[in-house]
Amino acid sequence: MSAEEGRGTALPGLSVESLRLEDRTPSPPADDGWDTDLEADEEAESNPHLSQTELYLQACRALGVVPVSYYLRHLGASTLNLNHHGLGPLGAKALATALATDVRIAALELEDNFLLSEGTRYIVEMLKSNSSIQHLNLSSNHLRAAGAECVAKMLPDNVSLRSIRLSGNGFVDEDARCFADAFSNNHRVKELDLSHNRFCGRGGEYLSQMLANNEGLETVDLSWNHLRMKGAVALSAGLKVNITLKHLDLSWNGFGNEGALALGEALKYNDTLVHLDLSHNRVTNEGARTLCRGLEINDTLRVLRLAYNSLTVEGALVLLSTVKNSSRCALEEINISNVLVDENFVQLLEVTCQEHPGLEVRYGGVGGFIAKKPPKRPDPMKVIQDYLDERKLRLWDFFRNIDKDGTMRVPVSDFRKAVQQSSIPLDRYQIEELIQKLDKERTGSVDYR
């Protein structure tokens, strides 16, 4: 179905009443010869979920679709994960029939089911009756324009949803207008995922209106779109006046220096954002410099991710100097994990961390051209081992003293703090080198097993 057909064609049977089929005595599934692993239950009469089972099976018979045995095996669960089950539009209608009266499900996962706009209409219609579902995942379902309109029309009146994921549905600029209008009247949804779509310049303007007018969203994921230049500048204008957003993911958009400049201006006024991801956005040292004009005034942003931009040690020094010299900058984590730094940066980092002990900077290592050859440092783990040997202590005891819960995993921040507060002769560079070795997957915790 094309976007135009989906937008203009009224699909039959969309009322809640039409989703509920007439009562009738069902035949055992095995007698129908369906391709399913469901078996008749001799004790079905004592099953508290029998009516829900019958309702779903009746809908499947009437629509000619194979029942999803996973759903029937998980009746009563608070989370229903039907991702990648190939439901299709009619499968969605059968499911919606059963879910319309199911008050136990709080999270509904329907990613990658080829629902199209038709199947989405059935799910949306079901939500008019079901007020228990708080999390809805409709990612990768080829919704396109008609699906965007369908979801958007549901949002103003819905009172239960708190999180909705719509990633990878082929939405374009005009579809962003639907969401801008919908979220101007819905302040209950806290998390919105619109990543992996095709929003560009005009889309950025509509999304800017969404951020400016909405007073509920706290987390928005717009990664993997095409928000650059005009779109990036427009979106930043919305962020400037937003009063609720805490977590914004803009990675893989190509904001560039123009977008970084606009974001820097927005951060001068925004006082709610805590986490900003600008990874993979073609930002250069000049862009980092203009961004810092906002960072030195902003006192709420804690996490800034700038990995895999066109930054060099020059841009890294500008970021670090901003933290050191600004009395208002509240950054606790800076991720420039692909940037090779020099000894000047390492020394500045050590000085900065004395004033900001909670600061964590992830960089790619020490390299490039330096005026002075850095001194050769001993292996940090050997330093710890020698320190413990002199005091007749075990390495195991060192970690166990930090790991109060006995999980054999220690948060990086706790490990760093413990080493810094001890008398172990390790400088900041050696501590970070040790952490990189013990947390190779960048999980944020040290596994000492």
Highest CATH level, the class of the largest domain: Alpha Beta
Largest sheet: 11 strands, parallel
Q: Give the beta-strand count.
A: 13
Strand order within the widest beta sheet? 1-2-3-4-5-6-7-8-9-10-11
Number of helices: 18
Gyration radius from CA atoms, angstroms: 27 Å
Poorly predicted parts: 1-17, 19-49, 369-374
Strand content: 5-15%
What gross morphology would you assign?
A: globular
Mean pLDDT, rounded to whole units?
A: 86
Number of separate domains: 2
Going by CATH, the architecture of the largest domain would be Alpha-Beta Horseshoe
Class from secondary-structure proportions = alpha/beta
**How far apart, in Å, are the first and last alpha carbons?**
55 Å
Percent helix, as a range, is 40-55%
CATH homologous superfamily descriptor of the largest domain: Ribonuclease Inhibitor
Detailed description of the structure:
The protein is α/β, with parallel strands linked by helices and 449 residues long. The chain folds into two domains: 356 residues, Ribonuclease Inhibitor (Leucine-rich repeat, LRR (right-handed beta-alpha superhelix), Alpha-Beta Horseshoe), CATH 3.80.10; 68 residues, Recoverin, domain 1, CATH 1.10.238.10. Helices cover 42% and strands 11% of the residues. The strands form two sheets. Strands 1-2-3-4-5-6-7-8-9-10-11 form an eleven-stranded parallel beta sheet. Helix 9 links the parallel strand 5 and strand 6. Helix 10 packs parallel to helix 11, helix 12 runs parallel beside helix 13 and helix 17 runs antiparallel to helix 18. The longest helix is centred in the first third of the chain and has 14 residues. The N terminus is likely disordered.
